[in-house]
Every structure is written in structure tokens, then in C-alpha cells.
């Protein structure tokens, strides 16, 4: 089967699908990853074909300027729809879709007469168990949470409506509102797979059976992938350090964040590894090392804790390694996952990005590394995650679709 995995966003929105793609390739499928050009090396390292999608200019903008972000998002999804249609036209039997690509991919699959399968990294279906992940709101009660969840989907559909209208015209399909397609798929019980651990977020009690939680999907890492020599030497030279990584939404804040992080680690008496990332973190010293991209699965088990932005992938990786987190969420679904880590006891209370100071970070990282309850909670989650096989669940779901087709 020719499978096109389509996703858009930052590294955390793309990397988990390389592991899925590699597993599907090993199961005998021909797999192409469709994402923006910077992720071509990730796809190729996993043995996947690659199709380049239009870039999202929001990645370089001010995440606090919501009006500008919405305008940029509307333009981006229109271009994204055209890019996805072009990718499918190259030959596809199955579309595997992320949260960002699904509202477009459903229409493309209809036009092409092929199956599509939703594979999400975040929960999006309304539930009474919690408020929508994208709102970062506290629980509004069961009724309020469900109402807020439906409202969040309506806002998303409104964002995609111009792109869907344009896309259906290009595909010579009759007009259909974005909300109508979403409702049709839900009422038809189309499977939606969710790649997070129930150790971090239990499956909502009121979800329909077709909404499944498989367990996490991990980025592809070659079995012979080594750690950089300077990092291996640093790890061996002293006690386990603390990693600092702020993800893509903190772009341009490198100098300020590096100063805060180094000051906090030294005040707490801890060694540190700064992952440069989009923020551009950098510092030097016998007790501090700056690195580039390093597979979480190789580095995290050798750490004392992780200071991070609470992206879904980093949060899951910290739990998989059984180490505490200190979370500094910026935007999007990060406050949601930060709150979940605190709820299960694997992290102190989150420090919102705009309130971050070296004093607050010192207190949080000292607490996370010295109070054994955080490590114990993370270790318990690690044992739970060890028996989840989210990738295998997706491979099985794909094979079932293939047998139906």
C-alpha cells in the first residue's frame, strides 16, 4: 500500500511520524512523509520518501500577536491544501493525517477515492473530563468542558473554511462546509488514533469507541546512532545533568533564556546541558554544555531532570525515561501538557513562559531534583509506558483498512 503521512508544524509535530513511517515501511508499505522542507533529513534517516509542503510563516512570528497569527494561519492552510493535493496526485492509497492536515486531507481523500486515517498527537474531540487542550483553560465542569470543546472545533473549522472552499473547487467537488465533513466522519465512526500515553492523560470516559488512545509514537532513531563525543564525555565527567530545551515557540529568546537557565542551574548546584534549538540557547563552562539535536531516547535516561516547554513529545520522552520535568509552557497545547505532568506528580507546578525568572526556575529545578516524589511518579509512568505499543496499534489499524479496501 502507498501511504502518505501528512503533517505540518514544528519538529515536535513531525518527528513522531517518522517512527510510524518506519514501522509501516517495515510492514511492507511504501511510505512518503509530507512535511515542510527542513524535515527532509528526518524522513530520509527513517528510510521514507519525502514530499515538501509549503512553509508556515507563523513559525517565525510573534506567538503573542494573535490577530497576526490568525491571518498567517488562514493563508498557510490554503497553501497547505494545495500542497497536499499535489502530493496525493503523485500516487497514494492511504492518507494518514495529523491534527493540522486532517481538515484538508479528508476532502482530498474523497476526491481521490482513497481511505484516510486520522492520527493525532493531541486530544481534540470534546469531552467532559477536561477543557480543550488548545485553550489551556482550567476545567469548566463536565458540561462547560464539552461546550468549550465544541466551540474550539468550530473555531478551527472557521479557520479552515476558506481553504476547504478553495480546495473543493480545485478538486471539482460540490460545496461542503468544513463543519459538515467533520460531523459526517464522527457520525460514521471513522477511527481517530491518538498518540499519547494514558499514563499522562487517561482516555476520556465519554469518548465514542472510534476515538482510540494507542500510546505514544516515538521518533525514528537508528540503532547505531551515537551520542556526540563531547556529550558522552560530559555525561561521564560528573553527576547526571539537567537538560534545558525550550522548543520552537521561544525563537529569538536565546540570550535571555540561556542566562536564566545557567543562573538557575548553578544556584541549585546542578550541571546542565543546553539544547540550542530554535531559541538559540548557548553557554560555556565546565558545568554547562551546549548541544544541537540529540535523540531524546538516548540522552534522557542519563539525566537528572528536564527543563522544557511541555511539548507533547518532550513531555512523553521525559516520562519514558522516568525523570522529573520542570515545565515552562509558551503557547498552544503546551500549558495543557504541563498541567498534566504536574497532575500526575512528575513535575512541580508549571512556570508560565512570561513569568520565568532565574529565581523561580532555581526553586522549581531544586524541588524536582531533590524531592523523590517527582522521580517516583515519573518512574511509575515509565513502567506504564513500557507496555504501550502505540506504533503497533497504528500498523494494525492500517492493515485493517487495507483488508477492507
Strand segment tally: 12
CATH superfamily placement of the largest domain: Glycogen Phosphorylase B
CATH topology of the largest domain: Rossmann fold
How much strand content do the residues show?
Answer: 5-15%
CATH architectural name of the largest domain = 3-Layer(aba) Sandwich
Explain what you see.
With 405 residues, the protein is of the alpha/beta class. 46% of the residues lie in helices and 13% in strands. The chain has 14 helices and twelve strands. The chain starts with a strand and ends with a helix.
Features:
405 residues; alpha/beta; Rossmann fold; 2 domains; seven-stranded parallel sheet; 14 helices; 46% helix
In short:
By secondary structure, the chain is an alpha/beta fold. Helix content is 46%, strand content 13%.
Layout: helices, strands, pairs:
Elements: E1 2-6, H1 11-26, E2 30-36, H2 40-45, E3 49-53, H3 66-89, E4 94-97, H4 102-112, E5 115-120, H5 141-170, H6 178-187, E6 192-194, E7 211-213, H7 229-236, E8 242-245, H8 254-267, E9 272-275, E10 288-291, H9 296-299, E11 305-308, H10 312-321, E12 325-327, H11 334-343, H12 358-370, H13 372-386, H14 390-404
Parallel strand pairs: 1-2, 1-4, 2-3, 4-5, 5-6, 6-7, 8-9, 8-11, 9-10, 11-12
Helix pairs in contact: 1-14, 3-4, 3-5, 4-5, 8-12, 10-13
Amino acid at each position: 500500500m502507498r501511504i502518505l503521512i501528512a503533517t505540518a508544524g514544528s519538529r515536535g509535530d513531525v518527528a513522531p511520524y517518522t517512527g510510524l513511517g518506519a514501522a509501516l515501511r517495515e510492514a511492507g508499505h511504501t511510505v512518503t512523509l509530507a512535511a515542510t522542507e527542513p524535515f527532509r533529513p528526518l524522513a530520509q534517516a527513517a528510510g521514507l520518501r519525502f514530499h515538501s509542503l509549503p512553509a508556515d510563516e507563523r513559525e517565525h512570528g510573534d506567538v503573542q500577536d494573535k490577530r497576526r497569527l490568525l491571518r498567517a494561519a488562514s493563508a498557510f492552510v490554503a497553501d497547505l491544501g494545495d500542497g497536499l493535493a499535489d502530493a496525493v496526485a503523485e500516487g497514494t492509497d492511504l492518507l494518514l493525517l495529523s491534527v493540522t492536515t486532517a481538515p484538508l486531507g479528508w476532502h482530498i481523500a474523497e476526491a481521490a477515492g482513497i481511505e484516510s486515517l486520522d492520527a493525532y498527537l493531541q486530544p481534540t474531540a470534546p469531552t467532559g473530563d477536561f477543557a480543550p487542550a488548545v485553550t489551556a483553560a482550567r476545567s469548566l465542569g463536565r458540561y462547560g468542558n464539552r461546550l468549550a470543546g465544541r466551540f474550539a472545533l468550530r473555531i478551527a473549522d472557521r479557520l479552515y473554511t476558506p481553504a476547504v472552499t478553495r480546495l473543493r473547487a480545485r478538486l471539482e467537488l460540490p460545496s461542503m462546509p468544513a463543519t459538515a465533513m467533520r460531523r459526517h466522519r464522527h457520525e460514521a465512526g471513522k477511527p481517530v488514533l491518538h498518540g499519547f500515553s494514558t499514563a499522562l492523560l487517561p482516555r476520556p470516559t465519554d469518548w465514542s469507541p472510534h476515538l482510540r488512545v494507542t500510546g505514544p509514537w516515538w521518533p525514528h532513531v537508528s540503532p547505531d546512532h551515537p551520542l556526540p563525543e563531547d556529550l558522552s564525555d560530559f555525561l561521564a565527567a560528573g553527576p547526571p545533568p539537567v537538560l534545558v530545551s525550550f522548543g520552537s515557540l521561544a525563537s529569538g529568546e536565546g540570550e535571555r533564556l540561556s542566562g536564566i537557565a545557567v543562573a538557575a542551574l548553578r544556584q541549585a548546584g546542578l550541571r546542565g546541558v543546553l539544547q540550542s534549538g530554535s531559541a538559540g540557547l548557548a553557554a560555556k563552562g565546565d558545568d554547562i554544555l551546549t548541544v544541537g539535536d540529540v535523540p531524546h531516547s538516548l540522552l534522557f535516561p542519563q539525566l537528572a531532570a528536564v527543563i522544557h516547554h511541555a511539548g507533547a513529545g518532550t513531555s512523553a520522552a521525559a516520562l519514558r525515561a522516568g525523570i522529573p520535568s520542570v515545565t515552562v509552557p509558551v503557547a498552544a497545547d503546551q500549558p495543557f501538557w504541563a498541567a498534566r505532568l504536574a497532575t500526575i506528580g512528575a513535575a512541580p507546578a508549571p512556570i508560565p513562559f512570561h513569568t520565568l525568572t532565574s529565581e523561580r526556575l532555581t526553586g522549581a529545578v531544586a524541588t524536582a531534583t531533590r524531592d523523590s516524589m517527582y522521580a517516583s511518579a515519573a518512574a511509575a509512568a515509565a513502567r506504564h509506558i513500557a507496555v504501550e505499543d502505540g506504533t503497533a496499534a497504528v500498523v494494525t489499524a492500517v492493515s485493517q483498512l487495507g483488508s477492507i479496501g
